Amino acid sequence: MSGTGSADERKVSSLRELSPAIEPPRDLWPQIEARINAERRSAPAAQPRPARARAVPPRWLAAAAVMASVAVGVCKAGASAAPTALDVAYVSDPRYQRDRAALMKSLQTRLAALPPAARAKVMASLAAIQRAKQDLQSALGKDPGNALLQELLVNTYQDEMRVLTDIHAASDAGRGI
Amino acid sequence: MGFSRLAAAMTVLFASAAACASGDKTFERQVPAEAHGVVDISNVNGTVVVSGWDRPEVSVRAELSEGVERVDVSTDHGRTTVKVVQPHSGHGGEADLHVQIPKDSELTVSAVSADVATAGVTGVQRLNTVSGDITAELGGSDLELKSVSGNVKLKGHGQPARLHVSTVSGDVHLEHGAGELEAGTVSGTLVVSLDSARSVRARSTSGDVHFEGKLARGADFDATSVSGDLNVRASADAGYAYEVSTFSGDISNCFNATPSEHGHLPGHTLQGTRGDGAGHLRLKTMSGDVQLCDRK
Description:
The complex is a heterodimer. Chain A is mainly α. Helices cover 68% and strands 0% of the residues of chain A. Chain A has a domain at 57-176. Chain A has helices at 29-42, 51-55, 59-78, 85-91, 94-105, 107-112, 116-142, 147-176. In chain A, helix 5 (94-105) packs across helix 8 and helix 7 packs antiparallel against helix 8 (147-176). Chain B has two domains: 24-114, no CATH class; 138-296, no CATH class. Chain B is built from one helix and 24 strands. Chain B has a 24-stranded mixed β-sheet that branches. The longest helix of chain B is centred in the N-terminal third of the chain and has 19 residues, at 3-21. Chain A binds chain B through residues 114-115, 117-118, 121-122, 124-125, 128-129, 131-132, 135-136, 139, 142-143, 146, 148-149, 151-152, 155-156, 159, 162-163, 166-167, 170, 173-174, 176-177, and chain B through 42-44, 83-84, 86, 90, 110-113, 128, 130-131, 146, 148-149, 166, 168-170, 184, 186-187, 203, 205-206, 224, 226-227, 245-248, 265-267, 284-287.
């Protein structure tokens, strides 16, 4: 109805463009809940599932668990409990924190969107970055003023951001293409 | 629209419709293009093979498997776009694209799992894949290449250019490059051979870096890694000053220089000058081993 809209009216082509603050006109949950409860009451007693169904977790669940562990590992390393002075200086940069937090928030989803072979390799690379950060932090613990280690640690932080950004872009690629 | 134009348009439409109806999965299309125009190509799965030619047109031939919706080819103001369209369900098939473009075109290829190969393109190339491998011939213009897990093979002809290559886990092999190189990987291996380098910056987290080549007068060379080894065989007519640092790796060289230790602190350093010392070479690693030689 293009002829009836006001001049500043714009088309919404995606749900993402809608404001999350807008509430539905009425709360539908009480009705939904009542209906679910009614169906539960009328349904026959639940049959026990075959043991095999519980013993073998679906493959996607295993993959999700691995991705979650990588994501948690990356998160934990980013907020290390005993950071070096360099960590504090670098990681406390608000722009870095903001950008990294935004990328970490969607890491699991982004990893899931990659082709399986690529996902496995990327997860191995993220693990390599984790190890590198831990090794550098550990070495800096022994020699805190070592300029070489400081430079390599900053490089590694930058590389981690590059990889997170690349994963972000890569998971978008299929949609964009 | 004259009758002959209308007839031609109808013929193309009927031909396309007939191709679709018969299940024939071959697509062909030619469009006029500018000699120095822009060509954008995108494909999710399959292959993208691009070659440069002398004609002012873009020719697209594609073999499409079940699940590919269509190939869109459009041209507008010097920009030609070739796009393999997958169905919205996301269960797309593969498309093998063979695209010929004017050789001086500025080329951009975006792929997900599709392998990409280019040859005979002398304009700027921007090649991106997620897991697809990339093989490219360098044509003397700048190249920007990015892949997440795909392997990269580049072959040049010693013409100087600015080369930017980055992967997350993919290996990079570059032969007969020249000019300026910036290469980075997390866990891939970088194997680089440059005929004449003005500037080299190579960075890796755990992957090894192998460099072989000649540095131009006054060239700058920087390579760093955390745990990957650095193996550099760099010659230079006017020599270079070198500085090698490692925290826990070993340093070896082919000119019998002895690394120095840092007193009671861990780490080794090797510093000195070869020839006139016109260039600068710096190699830094935490636990990787370093090999340096000034002979190819």
